[in-house]
Amino acid sequence: MSRQLIASTSPYAQIIGFSRAVRVDNHISIGGTAPIDEHGMTVGVGNPAIQTQQCIETIKAALESAGCSLNDVVRTRIMLTNIDHWKEVAEVRGQYFTGILPVDTVVEVSRFINPDWLIEIEVDAIVSQVT
């Protein structure tokens, strides 16, 4: 069994002790991905669509670092601080996943560590090739 850790640029990664993604054989888990850029700065404050795009782009980069792609995603979990944002978020998600069709869950949460975050996304992927 092989285990690969993909580092996070989150300012909370060292404090909490987490990776952006973990690949074990052909399974990749990506934890709650916040709308932050490579410098740990929040992107799209007040804009759920821009924050969703940032989350998915971060996830895409982590998957590529793990040797796979969005095509390997089998599940997404979307957590929103305001469930009324679901449609804006769904439209952005659809731009990335309409042809892939992973299962999805959307839930409302009370808040995140950073109050500027409107969304976090988790992803599970399974690749056909074991490296």
In the predicted model, the low-confidence regions spanning at least 5 consecutive residues are none
- What's the arrangement of strands in the largest beta sheet? 1-2-3-6-4-5
CATH topological fold name: 60s Ribosomal Protein L30, Chain: A
Q: Number of helix segments? A: 3
How far apart lie the N and C ends?
10 Å
Q: How would you describe this structure to a colleague?
A:
It is a single chain. This protein has 131 residues and is an alpha+beta fold. It contains three helices and six strands, in the order βαββαβαββ. Strands 1-2-3-6-4-5 form a six-stranded mixed beta sheet, covered by helices on one side. The model has no long low-confidence stretch (mean pLDDT 94).
Briefly, what is this?
The protein has 131 residues and is an alpha+beta fold. The chain is 26% helix and 28% strand.
What is the topological layout?
Elements: E1 3-6, H1 13-16, E2 21-24, E3 27-33, H2 48-65, E4 73-80, H3 86-97, E5 103-108, E6 119-126
Helix pairs in contact: 2-3
Characteristic terms for this protein:
26% helix, six-stranded mixed beta sheet, 60s Ribosomal Protein L30, Chain: A, 3 helices, alpha+beta, globular, 131 residues
